[in-house]
């Protein structure tokens, strides 16, 4: 894979052959998810206007955005005096009634661009990407913030085709010096309905999902059944022990009572009467 600086240099050479070129989507090397639902990342017009006539004063790049409609595909971004349009997102209904100025940034000479060799440095990655890319739709709060007075670059509409144009403006005179062609239509992503998202790997059918659910629940039910069987077994064992203990207690209580009754009867029969007769016999002798 070629280094990043080589890829960018190739892009600059492609854009540097003249201004009759179009803005391009950012390379996948720099923006992996592009476009998104509400943003589009474009390559800045690096080295694009270097072949133009010498410019006096400070130069600035304006980026205009236009919804791709048949009635406005060749819309102009300047008036008859070459003054650039200052129309805003609100005034054009988000680019549906005409182009609006979304971004303005300084023109950096090719020799002043930061080296891409430092792109691996996390601390400088954002700075380097901002030098090479511009993101349309990056400001999500400017429309709702009453204190915002700058150039508003609000989110784009999802599933909508847009065109983009770079304009070189001399800020000393306020006039358009040069401009690119309108880009080809670039469509933002569409929001995927939740019902259309396949959350199962391998695109399983409904029957497979049911079978998988049953098999997944089976170990739980088996565990519950096993636990219930163990509990019932323990309850049955405890009941048998209580019955055996109760029977033994009844037997032990019944035997002593029988022995006690016979002893009492034996004592009363064998010992009681002889004593009574002896006493009677003795009394008679005394008489």
Automatic annotation (TrEMBL):
The keyword Membrane applies. CDD domains: UP_IIIa (cd09970). It comes from the Eukaryota. GO terms for cellular component: plasma membrane. Residues 1-18 form the signal peptide. Residues 77-93, 261-270 have a biased composition (Polar residues). This is Uroplakin-3a.
């Amino acid at each position: 894979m070629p280094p990043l600086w080589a890829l960018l240099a190739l892009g600059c050479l492609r854009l540097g052959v003249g201004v009759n070129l179009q803005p391009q989507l950012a390379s996948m090397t720099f923006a992996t998810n592009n476009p998104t639902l509400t943003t589009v990342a474009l390559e800045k017009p690096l080295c694009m206007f270097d072949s133009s006539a010498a410019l006096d004063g400070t130069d600035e790049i304006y980026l205009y955005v236009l919804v791709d409609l048949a009635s406005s595909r060749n819309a102009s971004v300047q008036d008859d005096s070459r003054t650039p349009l200052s129309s805003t997102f609100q005034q054009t209904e988000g680019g549906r009634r005409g182009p609006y100025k979304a971004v303005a940034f300084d023109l950096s000479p090719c020799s002043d661009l930061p080296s891409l060799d430092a792109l691996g440095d996390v601390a400088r990655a954002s700075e380097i990407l901002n030098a090479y890319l511009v993101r349309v739709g990056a400001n999500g709060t400017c429309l709702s913030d009453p204190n915002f007075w700058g150039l508003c670059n609000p989110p784009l509409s999802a599933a909508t085709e847009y065109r983009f144009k770079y304009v070189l403006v001399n800020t000393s005179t306020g006039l358009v010096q040069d401009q690119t062609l309108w880009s080809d239509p670039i469509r933002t992503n569409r929001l995927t309905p939740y019902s259309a998202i396949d959350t199962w790997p391998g695109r399983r059918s409904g029957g497979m999902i049911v079978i998988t659910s049953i098999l997944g629940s089976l170990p739980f039910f088996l565990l519950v059944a096993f636990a219930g069987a163990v509990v019932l077994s323990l309850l049955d064992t405890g009941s048998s022990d209580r019955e055996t203990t109760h029977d033994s207690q009844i037997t032990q209580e019944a035997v002593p009572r029988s022995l006690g009754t016979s002893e009492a009867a034996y004592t009363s029969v064998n010992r009681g009467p002889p004593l009574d007769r002896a006493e009677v016999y003795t009394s008679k002798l005394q008489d």
